[in-house]
C-alpha cells in the first residue's frame, strides 16, 4: 500500500499492542488454568465452549485478525500485508498464544479466495475465520503419494449430488476435522485434467476415519474412507475436471506453511530450545566456553548457520513477493532446505543428549528428553510430507531451471 | 535479489554492461600471459576509477559517492560473473580502514585519491598460510620519528600494485593476544619494504611483503586495534562474498546451459534426473548464499550489531556454494571441462583462491560460533 506510511504503521502497531494486552484472557497467562490442547484448532466440538483458548480465539476473530489480510466481507480484516505482519509480530513478541491454528486459514482459504464462487466464499470463509469449522486435507492416497495426480477416489454425477467412493491416506487430523477439502477423480480417461476439487462434510454418512500410528508413537494422521458419500453439487470448487490447478496452488501455500514450522522445533518434529545450549549442558565446555566435542560443535554450528541462511531467504522472498501474487515455485526451494535442516537439527539434538536422547517413556528421562526422541523420529517425515524432497527437487529442476523431461 | 533503490539498480546495470563488454572472461586469459604480475589491467582500472566505483563506499566529503556496501557489493557481484580482476576490493577495504580509524588529516590526505582510483590500496594482515588476524607478529617499535616496522606479510591481495598498504602490526604483547595490535598506513615506496610477486593459480595479483626496518611517521597509525582490523576485514570479506556469489552464479548458469544443450544417449543430458537433482541442489545453495551475502552487506550499511555474524555467515555460504558449483561445473562438462580452453578451470581456480582469502569456511564457522558464545 503505497499511501500507507510508516507513521500510520506505527500507530497501528500501538493499537494492536494495546488491544492484545486488554483482551488476552488472564487464564491463559503463565501459570493459568489448563486448556484443551485441541482448542487451538477450533471446530464444531468447541461450539459454546468457554475454554479460555476458545474465548481468546473468538475475540481475535471478531476483529478479523485470525485472517487479517482477507477481505472484510468474508470475515477478514481487509488489512495490508504489512499490517498483518505487525499483528503476527506483536502476538509473538507479547508471548500470546496463537489464537487459531487452521488448515482453513493457511491453505484452503487462500485458494477459495482465488477460485471459489461468491456463494462458496460467503458460506465457508467466515466460518474459517471464526474457527467454527476445522478442515482437513484429502490429497494423498495409498496409490498416489509423490505421483499425486494418479489419485483414484471416484466422484460420479448422481443427479442432485456427487457420489464419492475411495480412500485417502495421511489425512492430518481427519478424525478431529469437520470438513475435508478433497481431490477426486471426475474423469478416468485423463490424468491431471480428470481431477476436481470438492468440499466434503465429514459428518456425511459413509465417511470413516482410522488413525495411523507413526514411528514416533504419535497419530496425527488418518486413513479416510469414502463409501457412497453424497456431496451437494455446489460443493465442487472451480470447474469440473479443473481441480489440478487449485490442488497445485494449495500445495504452494502448504509448503510455505510447513516450512515456516520447521527448524525452530515448534513444528512437526524436533524440540523447541537452543540446540547450542542443550549441547553445552549435556557435553560440557572447555575453559574458553567452547563445546568440548569439537566435531559436534562444528556440526551444530553448521546447522545453526544453515537455519540462519534459510530464515534470511524466507525474509528475502517475502520482501520480493510483496508486490506479487502469493507463493511461487520458490516455495519448493524453501521446503526442501527447511526439511533437511530441521531433520539435521533433530539428529543433533538427540546426539547432544547422548543416552538421555534415546528414552521412549517413563522414569529416568525428562519431558524434554522424551520429546527429543519422539521429535527426532517424527522429523523423518519432514522430507516426505507436503511433497517429498525428491519431488521438490523435480519442481525446481523443471519449473525454475527449465530442465526437460527425459524422452 | 534484494529490493534495490533506483540508484543501486542503475549502478548494477552500469556495472553489468561494462563488465560484459569490457572485461569478459577472455580479459583474465590475457592477464595470465602478462609479465607485469599486477594481476589486473591498469587501463580497465582507470575506467573503473572514472566511473566512480572506487568511491562507492567513501564519504561524499572526501570525494566518494557514499552509496554504501550493498551498492559496491552489486558491482563486485557483476565483476565476479566474468572473473573480472581489479584492485577495487583491496582499495575499498583500505578506504574503510581510513574511514573507520583515520584522523581528519589522514582522511583528507588519502581518501580523495583512493576514491578516484589514483591510489591503489591493500590490506597486509596475514603472516602464514592461513588467515589468522589474531596471530599477528610483525613488530612496530617506537622510533625517533614515529615507528619502525619489522616482519613479513603473506598473501597480500593486490600487494604488488598497492600504493598504500594498511599494515596490521603488533606494538605490544605476544602473537595470539587480542591487545597490542595497531594498523599503520605505509606508502608502497617506503624504504625497506620488499615485495615478492606471487603467481597464483587464479592469475590474480598477490604479494608476499617484507618489512625490514620500515620507518613511518607518528601519524601513520590509525586509531583502533584488533576491533578496527576486524571491522575492516569484515568489509573485505563481505565484498569478496559478493564477488564469489557472482562467480558461482555464472558458473552455475554456464553449466545449466550445457545441461540443456549437450546431447548423449539421444537426449540432452539435463533430462537425466541424476543431474537435475544436483542442479536443483546447487540452485538452493545459491539462493541461500544470496540471502546471506545481501543481509551482510545491508548490515554493514546499517552498522547493525550482528554485522560480524552475518559477514561470517555470508563468507561461509559463498565459499561453500562456489566450492560446490565450481567442482560440479568441471564434472558436468565432462572432458571439455578439464581443458584449459574451457572456462570451467578458471572458475575452479578462482573459487579456491577466493575461499582462502580473508578466512575460509572453517575459519568463519568457528568465528560465527565464537560470536554466539558457543
Short description:
The complex is a heterodimer of chains A (407) and B (374). Chain A is an alpha+beta fold and 407 residues long.
Q: Which strand-content bin applies to the residues of chain A?
A: 5-15%
Low-confidence stretches of chain A: 263-267
Seen as an oligomer or otherwise, the chain set is heterodimer
Biggest sheet details of chain A: 4 strands, mixed
**CATH topology term of the largest domain in chain B:** Butyryl-CoA Dehydrogenase, subunit A, domain 3
Q: Give me the CATH fold name of the largest domain in chain A.
A: Butyryl-CoA Dehydrogenase, subunit A, domain 3
- The side-by-side strand order for the widest beta sheet of chain B comes to 2-3-7-6
CATH class of the largest domain in chain B: Mainly Alpha
Tally of DSSP β-strands of chain B: 9
Ranges of chain B where pLDDT stays below 50 over 5 or more residues in a row are: none
CATH top level assignment of the largest domain in chain A: Mainly Alpha
- What is the overall silhouette of chain A? globular
> What strand line-up does the widest sheet of chain A have?
1-4-5-8
Structural class based on helices, strands and sheet pairing of chain B:
alpha+beta
Instruction: Specify the number of helices of chain A.
Output: 11
Tally of helical segments of chain B: 11
Secondary-structure element order of chain B, N to C: HHHHHHEEEEEEEHEEHHHH
Can you put this structure into words, describing what you see?
The complex is a heterodimer of chains A (407) and B (374). In chain A, helix 6 runs parallel beside helix 9 and helix 8 (294-321) runs antiparallel to helix 9 (330-353). Chain A is an alpha+beta fold. Chain A is built from 11 helices and 8 strands. Chain A folds into 3 domains: 6-129, Butyryl-Coa Dehydrogenase, subunit A, domain 1; 135-241, Butyryl-CoA Dehydrogenase, subunit A, domain 2; 246-400, Butyryl-CoA Dehydrogenase, subunit A, domain 3, CATH 1.20.140. The model of chain A is unreliable at 263-267 (pLDDT under 50). In chain A, the strands form 2 sheets. Chain A has a 4-stranded mixed β-sheet. Chain B has 374 residues and is of the alpha+beta class. Chain B folds into 3 domains: 6-118, Orthogonal Bundle (Butyryl-Coa Dehydrogenase, subunit A, domain 1), CATH 1.10.540.10; 122-223, Butyryl-CoA Dehydrogenase, subunit A, domain 2 (Beta Barrel), CATH 2.40.110.10; 227-372, Butyryl-CoA Dehydrogenase, subunit A, domain 3 (Up-down Bundle). Chain B contains 11 helices and 9 strands. Chain B has helices spanning 6-22, 25-32, 42-50, 69-81, 88-101, 104-116, 226-261, 273-302, 307-333, 344-356, 361-371; strands at 121-124, 139-142, 146-157, 164-170, 181-187, 193-197, 206-217, 263-264, 267-268. In chain B, strand 8 (263-264) and strand 9 form a beta hairpin. In chain B, helix 9 (307-333) runs antiparallel to helix 11. Chain B is globular and about 80 Å long. The model of chain B has no long low-confidence stretch (mean pLDDT 96). The A-B interface holds A 276, 280, 289-291, 297-298, 300-302, 304-306, 308-310, 312-313, 315-316, 319-320, 322, 330, 333, 336-337, 390, 392-394, 396-398, 400-407 and B 1-3, 256, 259-260, 266-268, 270-273, 276-277, 279-281, 283-284, 287-292, 294-295, 313, 316-317, 365-366, 368-370, 372-374.
Amino acid at each position: 500500500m503505497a499511501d500507507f506510511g510508516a507513521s500510520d504503521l506505527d500507530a497501528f502497531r500501538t493499537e494492536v499492542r494495546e488491544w492484545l494486552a486488554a483482551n488476552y484472557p488472564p487464564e491463559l497467562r503463565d501459570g493459568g488454568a489448563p486448556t484443551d490442547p485441541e482448542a487451538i484448532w477450533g471446530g464444531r466440538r468447541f461450539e459454546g465452549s468457554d475454554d479460555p483458548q476458545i474465548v481468546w480465539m473468538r475475540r481475535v476473530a471478531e476483529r478479523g485478525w485470525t485472517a487479517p489480510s482477507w477481505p472484510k466481507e468474508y470475515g477478514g480484516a481487509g488489512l495490508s500485508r504489512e499490517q498483518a505482519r505487525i499483528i503476527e509480530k506483536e502476538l509473538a513478541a507479547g508471548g500470546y498464544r496463537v489464537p487459531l491454528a487452521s488448515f482453513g486459514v493457511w491453505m484452503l482459504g487462500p485458494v477459495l479466495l482465488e477460485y471459489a464462487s461468491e456463494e462458496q466464499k460467503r458460506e465457508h470463509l467466515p466460518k474459517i475465520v471464526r474457527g467454527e469449522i476445522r478442515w482437513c486435507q484429502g490429497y494423498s492416497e495409498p496409490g498416489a503419494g509423490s505421483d499425486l495426480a494418479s489419485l483414484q477416489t471416484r466422484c460420479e454425477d448422481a443427479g442432485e449430488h456427487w457420489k464419492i467412493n475411495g480412500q485417502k491416506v495421511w489425512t492430518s487430523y481427519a478424525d478431529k476435522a469437520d470438513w475435508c477439502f478433497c481431490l477426486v477423480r471426475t474423469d478416468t480417461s485423463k490424468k491431471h485434467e480428470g481431477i476436481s476439487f470438492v468440499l466434503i462434510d465429514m459428518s456425511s454418512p459413509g465417511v470413516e476415519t482410522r488413525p495411523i500410528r507413526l514411528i514416533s508413537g504419535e497419530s496425527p494422521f488418518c486413513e479416510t474412507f469414502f463409501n457412497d458419500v453424497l456431496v451437494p453439487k455446489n460443493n465442487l470448487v472451480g470447474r469440473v475436471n479443473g481441480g489440478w490447478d487449485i490442488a497445485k496452488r494449495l500445495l504452494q501455500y502448504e509448503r510455505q506453511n510447513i516450512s515456516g514450522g520447521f527448524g525452530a522445533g515448534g513444528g512437526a518434529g524436533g524440540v523447541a530450545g537452543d540446540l547450542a545450549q542443550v549441547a553445552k549442558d549435556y557435553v560440557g565446555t572447555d575453559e574458553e566456553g567452547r563445546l568440548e566435542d569439537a566435531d559436534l560443535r562444528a556440526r551444530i554450528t553448521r546447522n545453526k548457520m544453515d537455519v540462519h541462511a534459510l530464515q534470511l531467504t524466507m525474509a528475502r522472498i517475502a520482501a520480493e513477493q510483496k508486490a506479487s501474487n502469493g507463493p511461487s515455485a520458490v516455495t519448493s526451494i524453501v521446503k526442501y532446505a527447511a526439511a533437511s535442516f530441521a531433520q539435521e537439527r533433530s539428529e543433533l539434538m538427540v546426539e547432544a543428549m547422548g543416552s538421555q536422547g534415546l528414552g521412549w517413556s517413563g522414569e529416568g528421562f525428562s519431558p524434554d528428553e522424551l520429546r527429543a526422541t519422539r521429535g527426532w523420529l517424527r522429523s523423518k517425515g519432514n522430507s516426505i510430507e507436503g511433497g517429498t524432497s525428491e519431488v521438490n527437487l523435480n519442481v525446481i529442476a523443471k519449473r525454475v531451471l527449465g530442465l526437460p523431461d527425459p524422452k | 535479489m534484494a529490493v534495490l533503490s533506483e540508484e543501486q539498480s542503475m549502478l548494477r546495470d552500469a556495472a553489468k554492461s561494462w563488465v560484459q563488454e569490457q572485461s569478459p572472461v577472455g580479459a583474465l586469459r590475457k592477464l595470465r600471459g602478462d609479465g607485469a604480475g599486477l594481476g589486473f589491467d591498469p587501463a580497465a582500472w582507470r575506467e573503473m576509477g572514472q566511473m566512480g566505483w572506487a568511491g562507492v563506499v567513501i564519504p561524499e566529503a572526501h570525494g566518494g559517492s557514499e552509496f554504501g556496501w550493498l551498492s559496491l557489493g552489486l558491482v563486485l557481484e557483476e565483476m565476479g560473473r566474468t572473473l573480472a580482476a581489479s584492485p577495487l576490493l583491496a582499495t575499498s577495504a583500505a578506504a574503510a580502514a581510513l574511514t573507520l580509524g583515520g584522523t581528519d588529516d589522514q582522511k583528507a590526505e588519502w581518501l580523495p585519491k583512493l576514491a578516484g582510483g589514483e591510489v591503489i590500496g591493500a590490506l597486509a594482515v596475514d603472516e602464514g598460510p592461513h588467515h589468522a588476524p589474531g596471530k599477528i607478529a610483525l613488530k612496530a617499535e617506537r622510533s625517533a620519528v614515529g615507528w619502525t616496522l619489522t616482519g613479513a606479510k603473506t598473501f597480500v591481495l593486490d600487494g604488488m600494485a598497492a600504493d598504500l598498504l594498511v599494515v596490521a602490526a603488533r606494538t605490544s604483547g605476544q602473537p595470539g593476544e587480542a591487545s597490542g595490535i595497531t594498523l599503520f598506513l605505509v606508502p608502497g615506496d617506503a624504504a625497506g619494504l620488499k615485495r615478492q610477486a606471487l603467481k597464483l593459480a587464479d592469475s590474480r595479483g598477490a604479494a608476499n611483503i617484507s618489512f625490514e626496518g620500515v620507518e613511518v611517521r607518528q601519524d601513520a597509525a590509525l586509531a583502533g586495534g584488533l576491533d578496527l582490523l576486524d571491522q575492516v576485514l569484515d568489509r573485505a570479506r563481505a565484498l569478496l562474498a559478493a564477488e564469489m556469489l557472482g562467480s558461482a552464479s555464472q558458473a552455475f548458469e554456464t553449466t545449466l546451459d550445457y545441461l540443456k544443450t549437450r546431447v548423449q544417449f539421444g537426449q540432452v543430458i539435463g533430462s537425466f534426473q541424476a543431474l537435475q537433482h544436483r542442479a536443483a541442489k546447487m540452485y538452493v545453495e545459491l539462493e541461500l548464499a544470496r540471502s546471506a551475502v545481501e543481509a551482510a552487506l545491508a548490515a554493514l550499511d546499517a552498522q547493525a550489531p550482528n554485522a560480524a555474524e552475518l559477514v561470517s555467515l555470508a563468507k561461509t555460504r559463498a565459499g561453500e556454494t562456489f566450492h560446490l558449483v565450481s567442482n560440479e561445473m568441471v564434472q558436468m562438462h565432462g572432458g571439455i571441462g578439464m581443458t584449459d580452453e574451457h572456462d570451467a578451470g578458471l572458475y575452479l581456480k578462482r573459487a579456491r583462491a577466493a575461499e582462502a582469502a580473508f578466512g575460509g569456511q572453517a575459519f568463519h564457522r568457528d568465528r560465527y560460533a565464537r560470536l554466539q558464545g558457543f
